[in-house]
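Something for you to look into today, if you have time. Could you write out one complete protein record for me, on any chain you like? The space below this message is yours for that.
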Amino acid sequence: MSVLRRVTGMGIAGSLALALLAGGCMLAATAGPRQAQAAGARALQQTMDGVTPLDKTIVVGSSWARVNATVESATGNMFDQNLTRADVDDVTTQLHRDFSTGPLRLTPPSTDWLGMNPGLYNVVTALPSLKGLSAKLEVTYRYPVAGHLRLVAGSMPDTAPQPTSNSSQEVYDLQVVVTPQTASKFALRPGSQLSISGPLNMTMPGELTVVRLDVTGIVEPADPGSSFWNADPLLPAPALDRVGGGATWEGAVIADPGEIDMVQQIFGQAGLLLAWELPADTTRLPGQAQALYNQVNQIVNRTPVLTGPLAPMANALGVSSGLVQPLAAFVQASNDVNVLLWIVYASLAVAGVVTLLLAARMIAARRSAELTLHRARGASLWQLFSLGTRGAAVACVPAAALAWAGAVLLVPG
């Protein structure tokens, strides 16, 4: 009697058949779910790759007036003051930390930025390049600008001087830069000056507000595909607005980061909008789609966590993200597919168990004489079971281990 037969109770052919059966069941049980998981991960990555950079951003928005009113209400003190760049840095850092606690990672903090947008105001300087059409401009504030734009002509702006006033109007001066497209359409170059009608003066009714824009340079996008340049469609290039039966050229200029106080002083009470933009990193997504959706959905449906002097400001902030809709749709589709997959897996599991039971029954029938002899010699049922198990394990365990390793190698990840 061969060693294999003494150990397993079966010959080479029987042991090989049992090993193939065990290995096949293990391969199906391992490779199938891994392949399904890998396919789901690829589909999720393809879905995220199809989302625009603007929608891959977590946006925390409010208005200057609402922030001031909320902090004033929470503290009981008058808080009619402007945010400083230190305040902006502090809030941005805290928001980045608050939103980075789940499987969805954000891009490096250097890519986060704050935007302030006061809306469009009429250009009061004649612009011959527009051939008689009217024009409107918005003075857009961005901070920081490093890494987002590069200077191609002129120089970057400097801090704005203090406003001047007389009996009829108050004049503010802002130094700005423009893109080549805006410069071309409005015939601007470094050194050009033009004025826009500013917002109504809330402190002195009847006094006009004029904002003089001094173009110091021309800049081009360093990252044209980023949310920095796509959050506002007028920032890269002007557009012709034909709404209302007329035609008006609308564009944007960019104020210097050092003019943060002046921009708020001019436009704050007139509806200045604030938006922190924190891009998400979707290049290497860890975790499952459900976990990603849960994180983003939680972020947009709760109040951000802020500490320190500006903590009350959190109640004035609203959070949104373009990732919610595509992730929700993907999770729904994935759940529908998973129902079918679990039916297949359950069917395979039942078939595998039945097959193994039949194989065990056949082995028991083949070894009936041997088992009867052991039983006659006083062996208990437990001892007989142990004997059969050891014999089957010699053939099944190595085959199952090899099948598992093969499944891992065939379907990595």
Remarks:
- The first strand starts at residue 57 and ends at 63.
- The chain has eleven helices and 14 strands.
- The radius of gyration is 35 Å.
- The CA atoms of residues 55 and 322 lie 4 Å apart.
